[in-house]
Model the fold of this input.
Amino acid sequence: MASPPTPPPDDAPAVENGHGHDHDHGNGNGPSPAKRPRAVISAAEIRAEFAHHDAAVARVNNGSFGCCPASVLAAQARWQRLFLAQPDDFYFHGLQPGLLRSRAAVAALVGAADVSEVSLVDNATTAAAIVMQHAAWSFAEGRFARGDAVVMLHYAYGAVKKSIHAYVARAGATVVEVPLPFPVSSAEAIIAEFRAALDVAKAGGRRVRLAVIDHITSMPSVIIPVKELVVICRQEGVDSVFVDAAHSIGQVPVDVRDIGADFYTSNLHKWFFCPPAVAFLHTRKDGPVAAQLHHPVVSQEYGNGLPMESGWIGTRDYSAQLVVSEAIDFVNRFEGGIEGIRTRNHEKVIEMGRMLAEAWGTFLGSPPELCGSMVMVGMPGCLGVESDDDAMRVRLC
Ligand SMILES: Cc1ncc(COP(=O)(O)O)c(C=O)c1O
Done:
């Protein structure tokens, strides 16, 4: 057998803060000021990093699939070649150290207590399946009683709602939806609706086993006061809280210890410049169920803990999960790192949203302080968009 593979050389432009081990733990998710890059990325360099984008299309939808710069794609291609050059050596010697490097970078980025709290999975949809599967087994194995409640926001993502129904409602849960108004006016309004829905869920002494809370909903796009809602869940005796933060890293500061949920997932391929598909799932190591979570795809790592199970789900391309450090290097080439990027994105998107709303005589779907890097703007009446089907028609033409 050949010698163990080492991570491929980094030929990305040099920055001072190397490979993700020295990010601030503030946790604004940005580099510490002393470690800021020497030269801020230029406009020409940004254009070169995204020269593979279709020049004929002005991309305004970063929220669905994100975007990945050329320097990160190049690092990903080096990992792919390393794998294909000597698959046995890669799988048995290179893969796990590479994944550990990425997990350590994520742990530092989000303020995890320990790298063992961080698993890398494909996407937020997979993370939701992991949590919902555990809840379903809790019903099947009698830890939860038929009719115990699961609470979710009305604004929850469609696939996550379906996951709750496919796994948890099917296993016996009562699903209670938090009916959020549209447009939402304030964080206080969300908190009030959440409290009222918890009262409904707890009616007649029913136990609330799981609350599923978004950090940033996508349609409509709203930053949810997630930390406050987690505190309410603790006060009201909710067993555990899963935060679907598919959009959070790169749009809002993330400190998983401060937020205090049991399970917290964010994609890295939406707003953090990783290639599709990579997300993390954080589980508190002192949490009661972290050790009972399993990846829905069972492999020979079954029983060795979620981070290990997630790191080997059969033969596949793991390269997106191996370039988290290079994505961190990329964001740190910008003034203020990821914090600077998200501040500028927020300012720009609000400016553009207001401009469109004014031109079309419509309104924004949420107040600016509840927007990150996404904004919802009412479409002009002449387009006749009154339903999801109408919206799809406009999207596709
Ligand atoms: C709030 C929310 N949750 C989950 C997801 C699913 O993300 P993914 O498709 O990467 O699994 C999305 C996707 O846009 C989302 O907006």
Notes: Residues 337-396 form one domain. The first helix runs from residue 43 to 49.
